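Figure S7 source data.
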Amino acid sequence: MLQIEDLWVEVQGKEVLKGINLHIGKGETHCLFGKNGSGKTTLLMTIMGFSGYKVRHGKIIFKGVDITHLPINERAKLGIGISFQRPPTLRGVKLKDLLQICGDDKGLGRRLAVSYGFDHFLDRDVNLGFSGGEIKKSELLQLLTQNPDLTLLDEPESGVDMENLDVIGNMIGKLLQKDIHKGREKSGLIITHTGFILNYVTADKGHVMLNGQIYCQGNPVEIFQGIQKYGYQECIKCMQCNV
Ligand SMILES: Nc1ncnc2c1ncn2[C@@H]1O[C@H](COP(=O)(O)OP(=O)(O)OP(=O)(O)O)[C@@H](O)[C@H]1O
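Tokens for the predicted adenosine-5'-triphosphate complex:
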């Protein structure tokens, strides 16, 4: 599904990603762990194609297509979706209108909003005055409507209370087809500090990013436990380190 080869990325003159290699197969969900400022968000924003993330070297291949220099809208059309760590407020854009843009089937967004008890937000400007948890629900509603083949999630749990974590987790589980083990087709890359998502999706691989490089890949639960026990720096010295 996604193949990243020796990716070097510069942001505002600073070299942030330094030779990233990553392969996410069809139907696989990967978790990305790592210290603050290590480059995780930069990787997601670069995959999605946001301006300001300058690819100095390397390739991003999605579904066999080289998307390294493709505009963001083309990447979305090809089937990539993203949920931001801190999504912007869209004044003058109603959530219902954004949901219509996200999905071809015009009724899908509303049906999903009703099913998650979120329909009273449809007539509000996107994220304007939304609480932290409401912003995350709105983001996931947009993604469920878009129904991307590769979903990029940047700390989906941040700002979400304990009860709503369950709702958010189930929405992500639906997005990534948690329950369909055979023939699962949707892929995901999830940045998480808390590891909460591991209770809601069957994650196939975990990676640890430090200082713009991926050091470790392996069982996501074991990696997360290793980080909790020994910290990032010690974790990357483990047997699973392959870079
Ligand atoms: N627009 C920008 N201008 C300047 N520096 C930037 C910009 N975007 C990212 N950086 C820098 O690049 C580095 C990596 O940032 P990034 O947001 O990718 O880290 P992260 O691993 O996602 O961190 P966190 O876990 O805190 O969200 C940081 O030092 C950050 O300050």
